[in-house]
Write a structure and sequence with these properties.
This protein has one domain (3-32, 41-71). It contains four helices and no strands. It has helices at 3-13, 17-32, 45-56, 63-71. The model has no long low-confidence stretch (mean pLDDT 91).
């Protein structure tokens, strides 16, 4: 185990059991997925395709737009 992974596990030990389980599921998914793409919910497919098209055209959010989006989540 790398030092970084060992550090992450030590930090996770102090978290509530539900959070530890979420982390464990994520790690297991990443470790066993072998790079297979996740399925896209059909309800979100058009948004994903639009986002991919915008990325292909190199249409990205400005720094100001990103900062404004993060500010909406501040308490």
């Amino acid at each position: 185990m790398t030092k970084l992974l060992d550090q992450a596990v030590e930090i996770a030990r102090a978290l509530p059991p539900e959070t530890q389980d979420e982390i464990a599921r994520l790690v297991l998914h990443m470790a066993t997925d072998q790079g297979q793409p996740e399925e896209i919910d059909p309800a979100h497919l058009s948004d994903v395709l639009n986002s991919l098209a915008r990325a292909e055209r190199r249409e990205f959010a400005t720094d100001a737009e990103v900062e404004a989006a993060f500010r909406r989540f501040e308490g």
